[in-house]
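Forum > Structural Biology > Help requests

Title: Can anyone predict the 3D structure of O-phosphoseryl-tRNA(Sec) selenium transferase?

Hi all, first post here. I have the sequence for O-phosphoseryl-tRNA(Sec) selenium transferase but no way to get a structure on my laptop. I'd be grateful if someone could post the structure tokens.
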Amino acid sequence: MNSQNFSLSEKLVSCSYVRQGLQARRGHEQLVRVLLQQGKCPEEGWSESTVELFLNELAVMDSNNFLGNCGVGEREGRVASGLVARRHYRLIHGIGRSGDIAAVQPKAAGSSLLNKITNSVVLDVLRFTGVRSVSSCFVVPMATGMSLTLCFLTLRHRRPGARYILWPRIDQKSCFKSMLTAGFEPVVIENVLEGDELRTNLEEVERKIEELGAENFLCVHSTTSCFAPRVPDRLEELAVLCAKHDIPHIVNNAYGMQSSKCMHLIQQGARVGRIDAFVQSLDKNFMVPVGGAIIAGFDESFITEISKMYPGRASASPSLDVLITLLTLGANGYKKLLAERKELSALAERHGERLLHTPHNPISLAMSLTRLQTHSAAAVTQLGSMLFTRQVSGARVVPLGVEQTVSGHTFRGFMSHTDAYPCPYLNAASAIGITRDDITLCIKRLDKCLKSLSKEAPAEKIHAIYSFILILLDTFSS
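Reply #1:
Sure, ran it for you. Structure tokens for O-phosphoseryl-tRNA(Sec) selenium transferase below:
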């Protein structure tokens, strides 16, 4: 409905009623106007009706929704199922063109606008969550691992003679396979144990650079978000080393956007040294379906180069999902979720000796299972399986001595991020979206596991596990 149609409506319905409707319509349009003008996440979230009105307006700009359109090409936005069309708000053409995922499609002005707005809004979120100097980003319809691979393949053109990627160990298969898929040989740097924490071995990093030659390294592949007792890499020091030796630096920031500390590390690393790109997951940071990531950096030309490396068009679903989410939450709504998540990580100062001391990890915490291991090695893994069968997901039990071969490389002590961590442990993460109800239900189900294990495990160990969970609950009460 435009102004002319509203005027015509006054012939059919009282003009005062029509004008009231016009004012309501203009309220929606004003929100859209501000979004297009500023390109930022709105401070307050939109209603679902405003979001749907906006998406429908975008959809009618695509050629597949033109009245009387006659498409005779091989890709004309044809969809057999109406259900599928509605699921995607009839935005069928996807994003990008064959030569650039960020390019505008002549047939799909609406989808192209969706892509541009999403990237702009996400850039704003990256800035207000801590990386203020980030210059460019784009949403890519691949999860974190493949997005890292895309970054490595782009660097290949800049460093054609490179063979290795220097990688401080993190026991997550997709991180390791992202380097192999790109055709490079990971040089694994074992972490060093400092107290209970596993930290970056900077001396070994520099020694390997000197041994193999800086020109033979494609990049350093570091990590922020991780499970305790591993902690984020020493990003500032690594960034300085990369600048010193002229080696690119790619950061795996998978679920680090929800942590102000992880984002601060990236900002500081870029300030004092070199960070070329950092990659984060959409589902972990924005509570949307799996399948998307954000590739961001401080040099707009390099980020554009990565986007042009993506072959062909791409699905618009991840961009659509994250845009709907951010428009619905608004900046204040997203910040509120981050604040609620941060409450859980604040417990690190109150854990005493029952929890592993990992103050440099802002997202995850861990508790020793040494006495349970001493009583019965099987009891350690049994605790994990009992929790899983009771639908307690995310709590990880890490036993000793696990070996795992990933694409021909054998990791000893797999899942613990080191060959021989001193003890088995249980860890949990304070991820965005976690609620007090989640913790309460976890305690109820864990109680059943403990009653069963209490027949076999020492009483003091049961008390330690109870303390671990009660600390989590206490955090939501403080």
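Residues 317-345 form the longest helix (29 residues). The first strand starts at residue 136 and ends at 140.
Shout if anything looks off.
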